Amino acid sequence: MIGLKIAEGREAEVYAWSGDAAAVLKLYRPGYQGHIAESAALTRLGGDGVAPKLIGAVEIDGRHGLLLERRDGLDMLAVLERQPWRLLEYARTLADAQIGIHSIQAPADLPDTRQTLATRIDAAALRPDLRDFARRILDGLPTGDRLCHGDFHPGNVLVGADRVSVIDWANATRGIPEADFARTVLLLEQADPLPGTPILFRGLMAAGRSLFARAFARRYRQRTHDPLKQVDSWAIAHAAARLAEGITVEEPRLIAFLVGAWRKATR
Length: 267
What we know:
The protein is α+β, with helices and mostly antiparallel strands. It has 9 helices and 10 strands. It has 2 domains: 68 residues, Phosphorylase Kinase, domain 1; 192 residues, Alpha-Beta Complex (Aminoglycoside 3'-phosphotransferase, Chain: A, domain 2), CATH 3.90.1200. A hairpin with a 5-residue loop joins strand 2 and strand 3. Helix 6 packs antiparallel against helix 7 and helix 8 crosses helix 9. The model has no long low-confidence stretch (mean pLDDT 92).
């Protein structure tokens, strides 16, 4: 029933599903368990428009897979590569989509955001003093019951003719909006472009990412019902946890960010 490969990432591959033209198969690579969180999050969302509908689960050659509603469109990064003049429009669209997610109560079986971050910080290649600093900051942050995507950025948002769809829920957690918001801002400001990104678009990203991040943050703060608290502290925790993902090119920037925050806190 597996058709042509549509896309692939570090944890999973996406295939057309020949048994249903309106479905795709997300097949996780051996050893990855992201299907558990993704299934829980998509079940709670129930195909309400913000994300593809979960159709079912399968196992193929020992690999876990999810059958998902097929959503047409390009990811927001690809759209911006073709239409960079829409940068501010899509920054606002991104913020509106995240606010919608955070309005939803997370299922109880999703992992807690703080626990997830603690595990990643402990696994990160960090100096002991920076790790201890990040863990102290994290330990002082609150828990919550809101749905958090866990990896919310333009590359995980499909832009269709009449709606946007948020994909890749493998890192979904249960927490507070500030935690998810801080991760997104960190990615917008610090994340390296994906391998294969054209040189010209890399230049455009370097020039426009700060503007995009500010516009996103401003829109979120304007539209959310409650003021955001302790965002800087969540950013410190996320920067330390990001180092566990093994993205070598980002490590100097993230460590410099943590060192700056540590020095400021110990003055």
